[in-house]
Amino acid sequence: MAATRVSGQEGRFMFAVLATAVEYELELRAERQAEGIAAAKRRKATGAMLPGKKTGRLAQSSPAELATLRRLVDEGVSVTEAARTLKIGRSTAYEALARR
Questions:
Q1: pTM
Q2: Is residue 72 within 8 Å of 66, Cβ to Cβ?
Q3: How many helices (H) and strands (E) would you count in the chain?
């Protein structure tokens, strides 16, 4: 494929068209980012979490759930398996066990 040189008015026009497309894309990206930040702030304010995320789960864990975690680990079940059973993250389970 041979490269063609564009100069003069055609080159300025092509540059203007491409610059406009890039500017439009940047504005779209900034708008989407602002919407995402606003949505995250709303979720934080209401206490809602993203689907599949377990952040903040320890504060929502009941004393019975924490007792079950401790009992399972004391019975010899691995922390990973106990966390899966209770549907909490491993790090959350380790943090709860450290609070004993």
A1: 0.41
A2: no
A3: 5, 0
